[in-house]
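[User] At your convenience, examine this fold.
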Amino acid sequence: MGRIDDRLVELSMTLTEPAAPAGAYVPAIVDGNHVLTSGQLPIVDGALPTTGHVGSEVDPEQAKALARVCAINALAAIRSAIGDLDKVEQVVKVVGFVSSAPDFTGQPGVINGASELLGEVFGTAGEHARSAVGVAALPLGAPVEVEVTVRIRD
């Protein structure tokens, strides 16, 4: 087991196999020394724990917890592409999408769930640039979706 696997155990996090794609794409792809994930939904045991718009049907704190799940799923996709998370040198960029009620403006707080998790796992190598975007709807009615780009060691 590697250093990051040990850290995941310390944090009581378990990575499963990436969810099967819901379309014509792959969960993650290696491009040179970067791995880019597809958008990851907060799927747990093959299903979304909740659906709806943040700020109306879904509480922002619940959505923040779901963003953590998205980040965990992104780590699983990255590991499936490169075999070992110890190869991650830096989390470069996180893009988070929040299915938002019309008057909801707390997208950054929701996506902090993903950003904070990556910091817990990778330390300073988890610091990244980020966008947090409110959208009208997400696939399958998900409240949040996150994509992650990391730089890997040669």
Q: What stands out?
A: The two ends are 20 Å apart (CA to CA).
